[in-house]
Amino acid sequence: MIRTTFAAALLAAALATPALAQNGPPPSPYTPRVDKPVCTMDQLKAATAAYVEGQKAGSLAALPLHEKAQYLEDMKTIPAAEGKWNTALKVDHAMSFHDPARCKTFSEIVVTGPVPYVIGTRLYMDQGKVIRVDSLVTTTGHWLFNANAYLKYASAEDWGPLMKYQGTSAAEMIRGANAYLDAFADKFTDIPWGQPCARLEGGAYTNREGRADASCEVGIPPGVLYIVNRDYLIDPEKGVINVFCRFGNSETGAPDSHTFRFIDGKIRLAHTLNPIPGPQADDNGAIVRGSPDPNAS
């Protein structure tokens, strides 16, 4: 009797499987992200050069785009024709980073006018094609935004290739970046800050005086805030890790980009982009005191 019942249950499950499959999500119309994509450093560098020139012209036509590429802006999928990359912008400063293991790039673009922007764009590649274009677009009204200050400080910093013995392993860069992001939930994490260190957040800068003893230990906001959906990009030549992530909820949490420059195992520079409403910075990189924080409860 037990065997008969068990067999009947198996038959019922088998008959139900097609129905369950039919009720599942439809297949994605985009080319899938693969676990181990294939690319070369030359392909990645050519792609970022084409992207930056394309942003100046307002077109991605020069990129080797996959016919089923996915396009995102502020972590929302959009039609390709609606992205800021279709707007010709006067680029005042640009720098790019390249991850030949994960086949990702990150380009940071500063535009001071007539409409100011600081844009962080990722390209994901496989087999010579760009399979994903992912931009965070910040402008006036966004968190600590000031494109003039961003240009002033970013263009004066050194994000170039490191000397042979200054590098940090990918595992240590991931650990260090995670330590910083974990600190928003656990204030006891050990962040590998170096010295001098400067952080550029939207336009607010922590070392406006150019001090040799400057520190990035400027404090973490109180409370518990989980930073999720962390997606890593590591440039081994420049000692840089870029993390795309969300503050809070994995579906609707605030989009964020954190870029860290490691030298000799320590964080020496950090850039952040947050396309969410917030207080502003002035042209010298100071936070405008008294400016409202729309996120305050």
Number of helices: 4
> pLDDT average, as an integer?
91
> Mind summarizing the main beta sheet?
6 strands, mixed
**CATH-derived topology of the largest domain:** Nuclear Transport Factor 2, Chain: A
3D shape: globular
Instruction: Please identify, by name, the CATH architecture of the largest domain.
Output: Roll
Query: What Rg is obtained from the alpha carbons, in whole angstroms?
Result: 22 Å
Low-confidence spans: 1-21
Q: Strand share of the residues?
A: 25-35%
CATH class of the largest domain: Alpha Beta
SSE order, as H and E? HHEEEEEEHHEEEEEE
Number of strands: 12
Percent of residues in helices comes to 10-25%
Distance between the amino and carboxyl termini: 63 Å
| Structural class label | alpha+beta
* Structural domain count: 2
Strand order of the largest sheet: 2-1-6-5-4-3
What order do the helices and strands come in, and which of them pair?
Elements: H1 2-22, H2 41-57, E1 65-73, E2 76-77, E3 93-99, E4 104-111, E5 117-126, E6 129-139, H3 147-154, H4 170-182, E7 193-201, E8 204-205, E9 227-235, E10 240-247, E11 254-263, E12 266-273
Parallel strand pairs: 1-6, 7-12
Antiparallel strand pairs: 1-2, 3-4, 4-5, 5-6, 7-8, 9-10, 10-11, 11-12
Structural features, described:
With 297 residues, this protein is an alpha+beta fold. It folds into two domains: 41-154, Nuclear Transport Factor 2, Chain: A (Roll), CATH 3.10.450.50; 164-273, Nuclear Transport Factor 2, Chain: A, CATH 3.10.450.50. The chain has helices at 2-22, 41-57, 147-154, 170-182, and strands spanning 65-73, 76-77, 93-99, 104-111, 117-126, 129-139, 193-201, 204-205, 227-235, 240-247, 254-263, 266-273. A six-stranded mixed sheet has the order 2-1-6-5-4-3. It has a six-stranded mixed sheet with strand order 8-7-12-11-10-9, sandwiched between helices. The longest helix has 21 residues, at 2-22. It is globular and about 50 Å long. Residues 1-21 have low confidence and may be disordered.
